Amino acid sequence: MCQQPDDDACRPARAARLGRFAVFSSLLTTLVACQPSPNSSASAITKRGAAKREPSELVSQGSDDAVPQDAAPEDDGQDAVPERAPEAQQAAATVSNSSPPSSVPRAPPVLPGETPASDVAAPPPNRTKLLEDDAVRPSTTRPSSVDDLFAQAEEEGQRLVENFPEIPDAYEVQARLYWLSGRHQAAGKVWETVLAKQPNYAYAQHGLGQVAGKQGDFEKAVLHHQRAAELMPDYTDAVYHAAGALTQLGHTEAAAELLQSFASRQPQLNSTWIRLGQAWVAEGNYRLALDAFAQALGYKTADELDLDQLAQQQFANGQDQALYGLALCLAREQRLEQARAVQQILANWQQQTREERRTERQQQDDLQRHSREVAAKFEQAGRIYLAMKDVDSAERLFKRAAVLDPQNVSTRVQLASVYMGLMQAEPAAEVCAELVRIEPDNVRHHMNHGMMRMRMGQPARAVECFAEGMKLQPDATGFAMLAQAHAAAGDLAAAVRSIDEALQLEPENAQLIQLRNQWQPPPK
After folding, report:
1. Which residues pair with 316 in a beta bridge?
2. What is the pTM of this model?
3. Which phi and psi (to 5°) does residue 20 adopt?
4. pLDDT computed for residue 172 by the predictor
5. Which residues of 429-450 are buried (b: 16+ CB within 10 A; e: fewer)?
6. For residue 285, which of 333, 219, 344 has the smallest C-alpha distance?
7. Kind and range of the H or E element at 328?
């Protein structure tokens, strides 16, 4: 009998349960794989926004950036690969059309109730050795220093590459971990290794462009960033860094044209319009800059600006740069009264947020900031392990990431998906409870928590979870789940009331009618 999940006696049963993992993918994408916030975007292995924010929320530290650092979309230590790896298709993820090239074969999607077309792949040969090594077990405490954090991170990056030397994304994770610790040359060597095998790997091209920018070789940086953007036209960071390098070379018109083309394809990204406005300012074209800054604030052109409405507007991260640029350009265009009004709007907003930002800065020490960055890379590594069917290593990395970043939603979604796929309801419920704590207004977390409580034989707890979810976003399916929890708890009257709530939303639903008749047959 196995006593611990990592015991050797547990492995055959654990591997067998993993065969059902893909069946849960559809359930997880609808219930578990939630979006932490409407402004976030997750593409292929890492965050293209975080995990839930658009690129303007990230700050670039690279010298080849097009705009001031406080308005840039990417921290050079942040992700250059997408939120989910192309390999992670069976790990509760849908691969985006912009996924990088990969040597890992793609599996067809598995629908609910279907059996995966093939058996679970055998684990890597060194899987048992890894699990027996205490050094690679998930740490339950955070590192004591930044140096300790980066030492652990580099060990994980090296281990990932040793396990999967044929997967380019493994090298990308390793390179980004080097980049985070300031070892830019080491990161560059890893990217060169990838390009020697796959010249069309966009993320390595972008990475080498960043290395060139750090070295002040902006001509070389432009070539690498533009190549990355050619390989992936929607690769935001590559486009931004290409424009930044062009600006450093004095080619401001070319930078503006590049950003204008990208903005026409991705008009929803405020950060692009802000950068475009700043490029036009550098070019001296204040009229076009005005329109770009107005776009970043939600207006089609500067002529449509409504200053009264603007004064009442809630601004997102980075939009202060749009307000500043707007005021500057209005002044240059001799529209002084409007410029003063926009300046006042900016001053009022900065006053409101100053205390929040001061508190946030005090809380964001170096170890905490770097821990979040490393946690994102550990999650990426976990996705690769999961895609390669090494569920134990994936679980280990997700756990480590969760410890490093106590507020991270994406990592916990991944961890919950692992436990659900392995039919381990109790640890899944614990993770879902953490997600509820982090995002109490996300209905999916409550519903997932309730599902796990039902599976654990705790219908009363499930009732509480489902009821909270239905307060946030009532729908027929949720009320049906609440009704079933009431019934399992022995309260048929409450079950009928919940089914009636569901029938009000979907009166023709035959399954709901059948459930109601089961609990309270219609009078004869």
Report:
1. none
2. 0.69
3. -90, 0
4. 97
5. bebbbbbbeebeebbbbbbbbb
6. 333
7. helix 319-332
